[in-house]
Zinc-containing dehydrogenase (Saccharopolyspora erythraea), 341 residues
Amino acid sequence: MRELTYVARHSAEWREVADPVIESGDDAVVAPVAATPCDVDSAILAGHGPIAPPFAIGHECVARVVEVGDSVRGVAPGDLVVVPWTICCGQCEPCRGGLSAHCASVPHMAMFGAPIGGSWGGLFSDLVRVPWAEAMLVPLPTGPDPVAMASASDNWSLAWRLVAPHLRARQGARVLVVARGSIGLYVCDIARALGAGDVLYVDPDPAHRALAEQYGARTAEEIEPVRHGFDLAVEATGRVDQLALALRSLSPEGFCESAGNHFRPGELPLFDMYLTGVTMRIARDNVRVHIPDALELAASGRVDPGRVVSDVLDWERLPEALPQRHLKPVFVRDLPQADDA
């Protein structure tokens, strides 16, 4: 089979590897049918990632189950499933505590799409072996479009986690979103659907701002810090200066969620944070526990993640098209017709 391999800056190619096989009764083999790059993949393809190529890339997809081991009962061949981007067993102490990104059954940071914590392959591959399939795979509910949900493996479900629990605790919260890609736009959609009182989206890209406005957000190309302006700030740029902007804009006891991968160092306004009493979380997401809730919201019709999809492209175009600049392209093959879904 083929797996898409990141080989050099702005360059990816198909490479032939052995077909994955069921190695234990807990395994499944899946075939991605709608796959999309994570926001951080753009930085990796531009040569800014921390790991030298070559390696199999891709960690967001909806897939069709091809084969399952004898112990797998929750999914069956033919099912459409979301494949979480981190590897987790579902049984160890961290997994039972909801910390699937810190599974004790695998090396730290084990994931699809980069050789961290072992080599698990990438989800831009013709076939993928998924260990602990009963714990990992999440059936796609009836209703949501697989193309719109291609990002449920990571960015869509992460966006749900960045804002939904805060709005449950504080209805009408004022939300600042400082972003550069799909995560921030998903946050705008979810925040408005779940009752945010005000959403300000900050991004220099006019096309992104236009999408945020469709979700009901106010927008700005850039802003100065807004003292005590927001109850929740979401930063998804990977730039420490933008994280500092978000932190300086929080109300007393406000919360900042950072979803950016900060490959470069920088300074944070620690004294300002102390005086305001803010909380900041910058963390690898325990996405598996959030996927069902994120899918439930998508199925409710209250949100429209499909608006963020910038292009729907044929699977065979992956090597040429993935390194190009797109907001959120989805690469598809063998998708079911509406009557079959």
Summary: The first strand starts at residue 2 and ends at 8. The first helix runs from residue 39 to 45. Residues 34 and 147 are 6 Å apart (CA to CA).
